[in-house]
Amino acid sequence: MSRYSPIDIVRKFVLRKCLEHLVITSEHAVWFNITFWENVTDKAEAEKCWQRLKKALVRENPDFRLVGIWARQRRGAWHVHSVCNQRFDIEWLSSVLVRSGFGPQFYVKEVDDDPLSPEKIARYISGYCTDKNGLDKEKDKGVRRMIFVGKNVRVVDMRYKSSLKRVTSIGRRIAEEILNEKMKGLTDFQRNFSPPEEKKKAFETWGEWYRRNRDYWFALGWESLSDKLREEMLLVDEFCARYLKTGRWSYV
Q: Which of 15, 95, 151, 212 is the most exposed place for a label (fewest CB within 10 A)?
């Protein structure tokens, strides 16, 4: 079982895909990390500073685009890791950052033209969704952390359903039909005290029931697809192909 929550796994995937897209579609993609001069631990205060900075950046360049994430340092201070689509005049940027409430220290670096760079930088920054973030599980619960500025940056959202999940959903519907047919032929006693194995047990959580049946559902779904649909699912993303090869599950 994953040590990360399903929502964080999906968030990480969404951020990675949006970062990759921004780098690929930008003539001058720039790695853009900013911090506060003071130890700003209040997210509402940090967000106000960000909104001031965002307005200044968009005012300077109406076509400004950015994808990033809020992260906490271990001492609790908020900071931003992101990629944007333009170069900056360093003196102008430093002045705007200070006026907006950030510190004068920042990191900007143009992304090189290595074909692997979009994936590398996207994986690094999206890592702050999970293992590189000093979040407080209680205080930061529900806090908005992903940042999107500009048009055509949110190319994937949190409703994304991977090829693996799509096939599994098809199989789950088939399994429900099979189960309903089985239940029709059972007595009341059998339904209550000796139900089919795939039916949820009274002591199981919904998550435990899902994990117990998902391989069975995927197999049913995959078998129901035509060769053409199978090929299409393998091209949607990497998750279906990876599962078929390794048996590794994904919550995306």
A: 151
pLDDT in tens, 119-155: 999 999 998 887 667 777 777 777 888 999 999 999 9
Q: Are strands 78-84 and 66-72 parallel, antiparallel or unpaired?
A: antiparallel
Q: Which secondary-structure segment (H or E) carries 30?
A: strand 30-34
pTM of the model: 0.78
Which runs of E-coded beta strand occur in 73-207? 78-84, 106-110, 146-149
Q: Which residue has the tokens 């199981």?
A: 204
Cα(52)–Cα(66) distance, integer angstroms: 15
Q: Which residue has the tokens 């205060």?
A: 45
What tokens appear for 205 in the block?
Answer: 């959580």
65-103: burial string, b at 16+ Cβ within 10 Å, e else: bbbbbbbbeeeebbbbbbbbbbebeeeebbebbeebbbe
Q: What confidence tens digit (pLDDT) does each residue in 10-33 have? A: 888 999 999 999 999 999 999 999
- CATH no. of 6-149: 3.30.70.1910
Cβ neighbour number for residue 185 with a 10 Å cutoff: 7
Question: Helix and strand tally (H, E) in the chain?
Answer: 9, 5
Q: Residue ranges of the domains in the chain? A: 6-149, 163-246
Structural contact between residues 55 and 66, judged by C-beta atoms closer than 8 angstroms? no
Sheet of 78-84: strand order equals: 106-110, 30-34, 78-84, 66-72, 146-149
